[in-house]
Specification:
CATH superfamily: Nicotinate-nucleotide-dimethylbenzimidazole phosphoribosyltransferase (CobT), large domain
EC number: 2.4.2.21
Structural class: alpha/beta
Number of helices: 14
Bound molecules: nicotinate mononucleotide, 5,6-dimethylbenzimidazole
Helix content: 40-55%
Enzyme class: transferase
Shape: globular
Family: Belongs to the CobT family.
Catalytic activity: 5,6-dimethylbenzimidazole + nicotinate beta-D-ribonucleotide = alpha-ribazole 5'-phosphate + nicotinate + H(+)
InterPro entries: Nict_dMeBzImd_PRibTrfase, Nict_dMeBzImd_PRibTrfase_bact, Nict_dMeBzImd_PRibTrfase_N, Nict_dMeBzImd_PRibTrfase_sf
Oligomer: single chain
Largest sheet: 6 strands, parallel
Radius of gyration: 20 Å
Strand content: 5-15%
Length: about 350
């Protein structure tokens, strides 16, 4: 076993179960708050899950950070995206650009500013030199993956290097004060590896989990499904080895997001998922270590086909459906105010008894 693989197993074993006693106290408190029991709907369940993560029936998830993991994909040679691969470095430059409104001119920057979340940009595999920036975490493993239609996208070592880059980025965000981590990504072509990983890990037909990504037409969608079928037909990874599936069919930014999820869980922070690409990384995370599931939180249902199957497998109900299909972590960022509100209901609402509203 390589040194990295040994460290990876240590990381998995250091993830402890969430605090179910705190969850029970939070549930009991929700039931006594000045409202009909259950009237805050999904916010109540969210608050109870947050209590379990933070080990308190009065959780305080306030500071949010989004880690946008970026990488390129050799499979773009097959024409699986509506946009050229050059958009990946261009968008990363946009995430880092100084604008009159503040740092970053992309949707994730604007949405994050609107809710006071910090944006970290992590390069694990962009196929171009990037501008220097204090906001860029430079951890390029290689300049994009290999073409997964023809060969394994990454070696196991490359995969683990990208995972640990994600771990370090999450640890940096946590050291800077984040208690809500949003996993986000940028990588032209990455809905193809996300669909391939999902099909293999959930034993589903590629046609059922492959969507239009950035907006491919019907003919391109059929071709994309064929590319994924060819990748699966190489039979180079078994569903019983999720890390092997990630190396074979995944991508560098998927691996980095896995690292963000594992590091977040180890540090007992909540990790908010965005869309379909995050969902694929989450499947790997929970198949490697089932305890991670309780630290992961869905945001909205995204428009990419297959996201619903991922959430169903994970046992999550989405918080909203805004037909988002952008990526970057945008859906996760939009969910942050709901997390703060859910926790505030537990902390700040009075019980009937505290409010003196109890009849006799
Ligand atoms: O995460 C999602 O649900 C999602 C759905 C559709 C598109 N994306 C974004 O679009 C890019 C991938 O789309 P594509 O068509 O190039 O595979 C990548 O940069 C993602 O951030 C992301
Ligand atoms: C412009 C653009 C922005 C993106 N952000 C995430 N994926 C993207 C794909 C494109 C094409």
């Amino acid at each position: 076993m390589s040194d990295l693989e040994a460290r990876f197993h240590d990381l998995l074993s250091q993830i402890v179960p969430v605090d179910s006693a705190a969850a029970e106290r939070a549930r009991a408190r929700q039931d006594q708050l000045t409202k009909p029991p259950g009237a805050l709907g999904a916010l109540e369940d969210l608050s109870v899950r947050l209590a379990a993560v933070f080990g308190s029936e009065r959780p305080t998830p306030e500071r949010a950070a989004v880690i946008v993991c970026a990488g390129d994909h050799g499979v773009t040679d097959e024409g699986v995206s509506a946009f050229p691969a050059s958009v990946t470095p261009a968008m990363v430059a946009n995430f880092l650009m100084d604008t009159p409104s503040g740092p970053g001119g992309a949707a994730v920057n604007a949405l994050s500013r609107s809710i006071g979340a910090r944006v970290y940009v992590l390069d694990v595999g962009v196929n171009a030199a990037l501008p220097e920036s204090p906001r860029l975490i430079a951890a390029k493993v290689r300049s994009g993956t290999r073409n997964l239609r023809r060969e394994a996208a990454m070696t196991r070592e490359e995969t683990l290097q990208a995972v640990f880059a994600g771990v370090r980025a999450a640890e940096q965000a946590i050291a800077d004060g984040a208690d809500l981590l949003v996993a986000g990504e940028m990588g032209i072509g990455n809905t193809t590896p996300a669909a391939a990983v999902t099909a293999r890990l959930l034993a589903l037909d590629p046609a059922d989990v492959t969507g239009r990504g950035t907006g491919v037409d019907n003919a391109q969608l059929d071709h994309k499904i064929t590319v994924i079928r060819d990748a699966l037909a190489r039979q180079a990874s078994a569903p019983t080895d999720p890390l092997g599936v990630l190396a074979d069919l995944g991508g560098l930014e998927l691996a980095a997001m896995l690292g963000v999820m594992l590091a977040g869980a180890r540090a007992r922070r909540a990790v908010i998922l965005d869309g379909f690409v995050e969902g694929a990384a989450a499947l790997i995370a929970v198949q490697l270590q089932a305890r991670v599931r309780d630290y992961l939180f869905p945001a909205g249902l995204c428009a990419e086909r297959g996201h619903g199957a991922q959430l169903a497998y994970l046992g999550f109900s989405p918080l909203f459906d805004l037909s988002l299909r952008l990526g970057e972590g945008t859906g996760g960022v939009l969910a942050v105010p709901l997390f703060r509100a859910a926790a505030a209901s537990l902390r700040e609402m009075l019980t009937f008894q505290e409010a003196g509203l109890l009849g006799d």
